[in-house]
User: Fold these one by one.
Assistant:
Number 1:
Amino acid sequence: MSMRVRAIAFSSSANLGAGYDVLSMSHRAFNDVVYAELLDSGEGKIFIETDSSVPTDPSKNSASVPVEAIMEDYKIKGIIKLKIVKGIPPGLGLGSSGASAVAAVAAVSRLLDLNLSLEDIVKYAVLGEKAVSGSPHPDNVAASAFGGVVAVTSHDPFRIVRVAVNYDFKIMLIIPRLATGVGKTKRARELVPPKVELNKVVENARYLSSLMVGLIKGDRNLIQEGMNDSIVEKAREPLYPYYPKIREISLKYNSVGVCVSGAGPSVLVLYDEETELEKIKLGATDVCRGFGFDCDFVTTEIGGGVKVEGLD
Ligand SMILES: Nc1ncnc2c1ncn2[C@@H]1O[C@H](COP(=O)(O)OP(=O)(O)O)[C@@H](O)[C@H]1O
Ligand SMILES: N[C@@H](CCOP(=O)(O)O)C(=O)O
């Protein structure tokens, strides 16, 4: 049994258009590192140390809530210290809560020799998402655990497949400098309509099919057409009124695809050598400024899955 373990999990962009709670892509833009350690003495079951703004109350942190469940299930008696080094800015639609949860579960699995599978890691990590957003949505955690582009094909039990990506695109994240406040994803989920018209469902099925076939075949047009959503992105537009204009500019300058990253406010742009990236940046900057804020651009690539190492 290792005494101290470190796990690293990447940021992610969920939904990818019409794949609400199903599709997600991990990226190397940011990562969270979680150190897990068994303590001999102390109070409570879990002790959190972090230099970031995320809650240190174990019942409110997406990293500790799943670890508490593991300790219950496996009847672990000791105290676990989780040191959370946040590289992924929270509340920006970049899967920050999910990555912490995945890294914590993977680290504790190694620390306690539990040998959890990636699906098991997802099963526990969604409890962290539930604690912060009210819903155990699995898409971000699946991408941070497995890496690449993932599809959650079953929820109970969890089954996740990695989607083959046969088109050579790069990623740009447009990150508004906005303070989204506590419970951003929870509020965004409350805007999703409980019922939708069949024509919208058919439209979304078309988008999703185009994106899947486009990624697997390496067909640029299908990817571009497929990254779209008539239901969830539309319903949440009041949260990101700048998005339709940024989408229009991004497509005008020939991005490979564009969508809202998770529940926003960030925007995911896929690009290649045919894309006029600088024009998209200039246009997006103007749009954001028109709405009274600045934005940052991070260019990156698809990320791998969670990595774990024993330290002593
Ligand atoms: N370990 C954690 N990492 C990130 N956010 C956390 C963590 N624990 C709790 N939170 C809270 O979760 C919220 C961010 O999660 P969420 O709204 O789902 O956005 P995102 O996952 O896109 O960053 C914030 O209110 C943050 O304080
Ligand atoms: N499918 C979820 C994804 C939320 O991602 P986040 O990174 O914004 O927390 C949703 O759209 O609600």
Number 2:
Amino acid sequence: MSGATRVLVLNAGSSSVKYQLIDMLDGSRLASGLAERIGEGNGRLVHTPLSGVRRESLQAFPDHDAALKAVAEELAADGVGLDSPELAAIGHRVVHGGKRFTAPTLITDEVLAEIRRLIPVAPLHNPANITGIEVARSLRPDLPQVAVFDTAFHATMPEYAARYAIDKAVADEHRVRRYGFHGTSHQYVSRAAAHLLGKDPAEVNVIVLHLGNGGSASAVAGGVCVDTSMGLTPLEGLVMGTRSGDVDPGVVFHLHRVGGLTIDEIDELLNRRSGLLGLCGDNDMREIMRRASEGDADAKLAFDTYIHRLRKYIGGYYAVLGRVDAIAFTAGVGENAAPVREAATAGLEELGIAVDPELNSVRSGEARVISPQYSRVAVAVVPTDEELEIAQQTFALVHTA
Ligand SMILES: Nc1ncnc2c1ncn2[C@@H]1O[C@H](COP(=O)(O)OP(=O)(O)O)[C@@H](O)[C@H]1O
Ligand SMILES: CC(=O)OP(=O)(O)O
Ligand SMILES: [Mg+2]
């Protein structure tokens, strides 16, 4: 075992790579950044070193390989390059781990093949995750590479929450069940919410609302996930930026038989042209709130539909948990959009849920309670940190291996 203590975390998306280099001795970020618009000809790399100023460079990234090499150059320029002997491992966010991967996993050729086999159930995510792994392995073939799966935290869901009520034999043959996603965030945030209340995570029940571009809710009882809103794929559940969330499956048959759309066209419609974007032409919550405040009817309807679905999940998970100690808002929308938090919790005093308007309007990067003292359920804003969680799980694995 070497004394190397740094972990590089890669979160490769379809057109971007987010990264953080973290020293596990003290959790400090030696560097972080984002390479975006990969393959689009107008790429941009934003790199933030531990000390010193943020650097932004415009350069075309024909593919993920080029983007990761540019990231490696930025790290090298800071003296923390990929060739550093201090680097202990590279941790990768992998969105779908299927039924097999329920814990952080050392990546081998065989593991990679299994992640590839899961592409049909995470078509927007797993291909990019695989590319990130391949490029990182080619740059540092000697280093342990670890996959941390979005699905893993949800593997504890009871069978009745993970099952769809369809023919059991068909479901089993095709591995059709609810897996859930954003698990790394739900795990981190549910634990952080407990700590914010000064309590042991094993003692508290939390509803976590991860509201980013993709969005999902989870019910976490004593640190264990008991239900979540995404399913076989990251399409089920909440209204998202471009994804519909829950629809009657009959919609698919109807669009195919009566509307004449192919299955691929319906897939594309529900994943990329629905949600907030489909309802009002915008998927950025900031823009939607601005338009709605100016009286734009489509933006108002998109906002209201988003909130209505969110409230249904809050109510549903309240019943699933029986007792709720905290509701934690996280990710881009959850952390920043006070009107979303206000609307999602309005009128729920009978359930012991209330939000203090003043506390809710505070802008801060810190975890904070936004409910008044008297509120039985603590409502909180808890910034997620998927990268730190991935780094910790990666480091723990290579240290016990
Ligand atoms: N100040 C803000 N107010 C409202 N929404 C915001 C704000 N800042 C960011 N967002 C929303 O957060 C979303 C992105 O969230 P994020 O968690 O970064 O998503 P992802 O990781 O899925 O890309 C954006 O689409 C935007 O709508
Ligand atoms: C699984 C998922 O929806 O991830 P993201 O929000 O990053 O798209
Ligand atoms: Mg995210």
